[in-house]
Amino acid sequence: MKKYDAVIAGYTCVDLIPEFNKGESFTNISDLLKPGKLIEIDGLKFLVGGVGANTGMAMKKFNKKVFLNGLVGDDFIGKFVIEWLETYGLSKGISTTSKEGTAFSIVLAPPGIDRIFLESPGCNKIFDSGFINFDAVSQSRLFHFGYPPLLKQFYSDNGSHLADLFSEVQKHGVATSLDFSLPDSESESGKVNWPAIMKNVLPYTDIFVPSLEEALQIMFPSKYAELQLSYGNDGIIDHISIDLIRYLGKTIIDSGVRILLIKAGHRGAYLLTGDVSSMNLRNGLNLPEENWGNRELWCDAYPAEESKIINAIGAGDTAVGAFLSAILDGQTAESSLKFAAMAGRNNLYCQNIFEELAGWNEMASEIKLNKNEVSCLRGQTADI
Known about the structure:
Number of strands: 14
Strand order of the largest sheet: 5-4-1-8-9-10-11-12-13-14
């Protein structure tokens, strides 16, 4: 028995969320943000965010023993993060530095418009493997890491630091899992060679769980730029064909990943796997290989009740938390995909996921009631 089910490491921040009047609705951000315009809001929410708080908190909600590894500044926001995580017994692995401030994001999510993030990476710029607690890692079943585009030390030098980290984790007999964030094309991380970085990192990645846009941008940046030029602020997710998704998935699996989950928002989720037998050599995993090996599945999103939606912040991370929890439980590929889709949907109804998110048994009951079938794509021809 391992002490922890998972170590969750990487980007840590605080989300500052202005609460817009729910009675208003906008169709374009330019209708809202105009020079000289005063916008009255209902309040400002402070939420601890990043991969640790989001995915880690979800997995704890799903009865998993988790250890968080992150970095905050020695400032007011950092103290808030530590105190908030202490409430849930998750602050032990969070380090503090006086060299940089705590990361924060201002999340603009007015009704009717997709979210806009104003991000200050803060001390995550200096976060590196030196802050990883390898003693905790060696006592865990899974190591989950995110988000490299906001962690300078892990995308510099063609991702060699991240590749070395994942290689070291695997030497401890622990499965590796990687999540992403969308690189800002105008920032330093948006100008690095992501395909080259992924070529170095993916051979050491057992489980990869990016969003559709993230996967496309880092693997096929020219195709992503082409779609963005064509569809701009309307978003590109609805304009990515299933054949392109399948080709993208094959490219990632051929790069060395064993299990790939691509989160496609309101469209659903795509699962592609290769040979998973090596994963069961990691301590603590027991995947049914005949079910998980060389699978290609699609799961539609579960319908959301518009009146119950609070926000979509962290929905992808919560879906990942459920997916990884299902894997740790030895669930089938179909079941794991359904749990991911259901948890992502349920996140839309929550402000504090630990207090409000449906638990594992409740989700299992919801899945039985909602006849959301998983489609098998393996064997169908993709027209690339």
